[in-house]
Please model this.
Amino acid sequence: MLHPSYTDLMETINSETEGDTPVVNSRYSIVLATAKRARQLIAGEEAYVNAKGKKPLSIAVEEISKGFVTIEPETTDENEGQTE
Model:
């Protein structure tokens, strides 16, 4: 079992945001964010927590849980996909 749980992670992430709109609405968002961070760690990024003997995904979950890594809401660029 993963510790902290998805619910705990969602509460932690959403409590740190400004405004009434939550950043994370589903487990899928957390899975994407932790997977992206784990890939960064595999590529050589420095871990923000003690990484000794831990797998990249476990490190990513711990970093998100402790607030070292944040999940930003996606923004859409109005000019994306438009051709001149």
Observations:
- The two ends are 51 Å apart (CA to CA).
- The chain is about 45% helix and 0% strand.
- The chain has one domain: 6-66.
